[in-house]
Each structure stands twice: as structure tokens, then as C-alpha cells.
Design brief:
The protein has about 110 residues and is mainly β. The chain contains 1 helix and 8 strands; from the N terminus they run βββββββαβ.
Length: about 110
């Protein structure tokens, strides 16, 4: 995502004994439209994904990508609606951000035309 992606999970510890307190909620949306370079085709693209942290929709991650002709459209959105998470919620929150980091760092693979 050209330097805008989450490179590391902010929740590094395997265990947490205190609540997570964030300074603010998160609502980040990145939109990209790009042309496939001339002389290349798209060989592989990441899969689309929508994930919710819990039933209460405390957090949501949306990753939509499509190819239409020679145009790639990407939309990535992270929305965290709460600023405080109990220590019992930590493992799910940590895995949620691991999934975001992994998905945002997937690559689009181009193949040179013959």
C-alpha cells in the first residue's frame, strides 16, 4: 500500500494483564486506483476481505480490490469504534491487528507479456 499500510502490529506482547487504552478511535480509509503498467498483466492479486472484531462491531477491517480491464482499484478501511478494551479482549484485538498487517502487506504480482 505504498507506505501507508500498517507495517507492525501495535500489540506485540503475547499476554496483557491490564486494559488497552487507545488515545482515540480509528477510522482510516485508503483508496488507490492504478493502471497496470504497459507490457504487463496481473498474475496474482490479494483476496478481498471484511472482518469484524466482535458482534458489537467494536472494530472492522475492510479490504476490497478489483481488476477492471487494466485498472486496479483498492480500498482499505480500518475502523475502531472504542478506545478501551478489557484485558480479556486483548488476544482477539492482537489477532485482529495481525490480520490487518498481513493483509495490507500482500503484494499484487505482475507478469510481463510475451
Amino acid at each position: 500500500m505504498f507506505g501507508e499500510a500498517w507495517k507492525k502490529n501495535p500489540f506485540k506482547s503475547a499476554e496483557r494483564y491490564y486494559p488497552v487504552e487507545m488515545p482515540y478511535t480509528i477510522d482510516e480509509t485508503y483508496i488507490l486506483t492504478m493502471e497496470v503498467p504497459q507490457g504487463y498483466t496481473v498474475d496474482e492479486m490479494p483476496k478481498q476481505m471484511i472482518v469484524k472484531l466482535d458482534e458489537k462491531e467494536s472494530a472492522m477491517f475492510e479490504y476490497r480490490i478489483s481488476l477492471s480491464g487494466s485498472t486496479i482499484s483498492l480500498r482499505s478501511r480500518i475502523k475502531v469504534n472504542r478506545t478501551v478494551f478489557a484485558n480479556e479482549e486483548y488476544e482477539n484485538l492482537r489477532e485482529f491487528f495481525n490480520m490487518i498487517v498481513n493483509k495490507q502487506n500482500e503484494q499484487i504480482v505482475f507478469k510481463k507479456k510475451k
